[in-house]
Design a protein that fits this description.
nine-stranded mixed β-sheet; 2 domains; 12 helices; alpha/beta; Rossmann fold; about 300 residues; Adenine-specific Methyltransferase, domain 2; single chain
């Protein structure tokens, strides 16, 4: 099944969502994404009928304003994107710079949407002033408006009337979680990004503060899934999470590393997924049975 994805985003879990969803409960009240980004996991979960409601949050306020437009005003944002896409013809490089300046002045969602479709590697970059400063990918014009419109309306149909959109600190979001919910967290890739990394709208997630937040979830017996670290070949990224949290750790083979391929190397990237102990209990399945049922070479179990 082809899943709709109107927002391109570097680091999106779109390609491995099918390996993550089997670790979700069959049904939950609300799926909460404190670091929503492109909302790839929520989209996949909505298509699979996994949750009744969704809470999408990201500290990047203009991004969440864009999400509100896609969900609540699909016709308007689709028309805005098409207008910009058509107007760029024949002056693409100069036009991109003009729209980037307009976005930094106005924060209008249609301008951000266009920039995301055109920028290098679909990767957001900000300068010290918080201004979008990523360059365009001059090899492409951005996604065709007809294809984009199709995905916009598909996602709007999935989330309209069922999604809460916020732009607050992730800790405020997880504080609202109940035992009937599931929290899926994909924070800034801690093995690569520092607290002032230009890929992110504001300061990154501090390791010590994040551990305290996880401890709170464990103490309150909230089910959660966490994407947090990984490795490429023999090189590992990020600090190990404390064993005292009692999390199960799964490695998902995300395929060949694009960055290393460009350098003439051929190594796969493995992304780590952590499951809370309460989620494992909620699934009513042992670690051994889980390994047998998954039965995929893409997944390696390494439970703590």
């Amino acid at each position: 099944m082809k899943l709709p994805h109107p927002i391109p985003y570097q680091g999106s879990k779109r390609n491995i969502a099918k390996f993550i969803l089997p670790f979700f409960p069959r049904q939950m009240e609300t799926l909460i994404e404190p670091f929503a980004g492109s909302a790839a996991i929520s989209i996949a979960a909505a298509c699979a009928g996994k949750a009744s409601r969704f809470h999408l949050n990201d500290i990047n306020k203009p991004l969440m304003t864009l999400w509100r437009s896609i969900i609540n005003h699909p016709e308007e944002i689709a028309d805005g994107y098409e207008r910009l896409w058509v107007e760029q013809q024949g002056r693409e490089r100069r036009y991109y710079d003009q729209i980037r300046d307009l976005f930094n002045k106005t924060q209008e969602p249609q301008y951000l949407f266009y920039l995301l479709a055109r920028c290098v590697k679909a990767s957001i970059r900000y300068n010290a002033k918080g201004e979008f400063n990523q360059s365009p990918d001059n090899r492409r014009l951005g996604r065709n408006p007809d294809q984009m419109k199709e995905d916009i309306f598909a996602v709007s149909n999935l989330f309209h009337g069922r999604a809460k959109i916020t732009s607050v600190d992730y800790r405020d979001v997880i504080d609202s979680a109940t035992k009937d919910d599931l929290v899926y967290m994909d924070p800034p890739y801690q093995g690569v990004c520092g607290t002032d990394d230009p890929r992110y709208y504001s300061n990154g997630v501090k390791f010590e503060e994040f551990i305290l937040a996880l401890e709170s979830l464990v103490r309150r017996r909230i089910s959660f899934v966490l994407s947090y670290d990984g490795r490429t070949g023999t090189k590992t990224y990020g600090k190990q999470l404390p064993r005292e949290l009692g999390l199960g750790r799964i490695e998902i083979n995300a395929g060949r590393s694009t960055q290393l391929t460009l350098l003439g190397k051929s190594e796969n990237t493995f992304e780590a997924i952590y499951l809370s102990s309460d989620l494992m209990n909620r699934l009513e399945i042992t670690e051994k049975e889980l390994a047998r049922q998954v039965g995929s070479k893409a997944i390696q179990l390494a439970f703590a």
